[in-house]
From TrEMBL:
This is BTB domain-containing protein. It comes from the Eukaryota. It comes from Roridomyces roridus. PROSITE patterns: BTB (PS50097). Residues 16-91 form the BTB domain.
Length: 295
């Protein structure tokens, strides 16, 4: 009896725009080389190793072919864990967390808390990292963003009705400041404080053009606060700085950036106290005790 050794594809792991074909046993997978290299230092080294012109490198569908000496079943599971973009369902995280807490299944409770905590920051630097990847135009950055948020965010009403009481029930208080911030829409009164960043700043030798540019920045900020009234940490983004740097001198730009950085950090530092919660240092300690120093 003749054995058919023709390689077959795994449809769920065969991407038409993939840049490399992985073959294990008789199964082929077409995936994205850049993401594979970003996730695995072993693959990064393997794929960056230059091949001599006469090495007779294999290819498939116009892509480099890499053969792995592993079982096709294990490679399929491994690649799916890397490339399957489906996030954990919100209902799964909530259900497992509630019942594992109720029935004291500690390892499941910790796992669910890790999932839940992945979407909520306790530091401004991590908030900015989540924000940058969420708004990135780079496919790789968006693909890697799942490492920062491992579950699908539901509608705001569901977050309020389900997550608010659950977080208090299981004692995950470190989530609350970011959650309150996300849910809040009462930040319009912060406009005056935001404008002080641009107006209440004196710089020796600041030319007339810089003063005019700061007035332009105020107008731009007004428009941003009307568009995004509930997200003060996002009122002025990196793209806005690129617009401003063409209008002001270097000294003004440095001073304004520092003023903006300090104002955002001060706002973040005060966030827990705004809602009657302990300071970030205590909340971070609670988080580490519950899930370890993961995020």
């Amino acid at each position: 009896m003749q054995v058919d050794n023709t390689p077959h594809r795994r449809p769920e792991l065969w991407f038409d725009d993939g840049s490399i074909v992985i073959q294990a046993e008789n199964t082929q997978f077409r995936v994205h080389r850049s993401i594979l290299a970003a996730r695995s230092p072993v693959f990064k080294d393997m794929l960056s190793f230059p091949q001599p012109p006469d090495a007779g490198s294999e290819s498939a569908e116009g892509c480099p072919l890499v053969r792995l000496h592993d079982s096709s079943a294990e490679v399929a599971v491994f690649l799916k864990a890397i490339f399957d973009s489906a996030l954990t369902e919100f209902e799964t995280v909530v259900g497992v967390l509630r019942l594992s807490h109720k029935y004291n299944v500690e390892y499941l409770r910790r796992r669910a808390l890790i999932h839940l905590s992945s979407a909520f920051s306790t530091t401004l630097s991590r908030w900015d990292k989540i924000l940058a990847r969420a708004h990135s135009d780079e496919p790789l950055a968006r693909a890697l963003s799942m490492e920062l948020n491992s579950w699908a965010m539901p509608r705001v009403g569901t977050l309020f009705a389900v997550l608010m009481p659950l977080v208090r029930e299981v004692g995950a208080v470190w989530i609350l400041p970011h959650l309150f911030y996300y849910l809040s829409s009462q930040f319009r009164n912060l406009s005056d404080e935001i404008f002080k960043i641009w107006t209440n700043i004196g710089i020796d030798g600041s030319p007339k053009e810089c003063a005019q540019a700061r007035l332009w920045a105020i107008d731009h900020t007004v428009e941003m606060t009307r568009t995004f009234p509930s997200v003060p940490l996002e009122v002025w983004r990196e793209a806005d700085w690129h617009l401003l740097e063409e209008r002001v001198c270097w000294n003004c730009l440095i001073a304004l950036r520092e003023k903006h950085r300090a104002a955002r950090q001060a706002f973040w530092d005060k966030l827990p106290g705004t809602y009657g919660l302990p300071p970030w240092e205590e909340l971070e300690k609670m988080k580490v005790e519950a899930i370890g120093n993961i995020f």
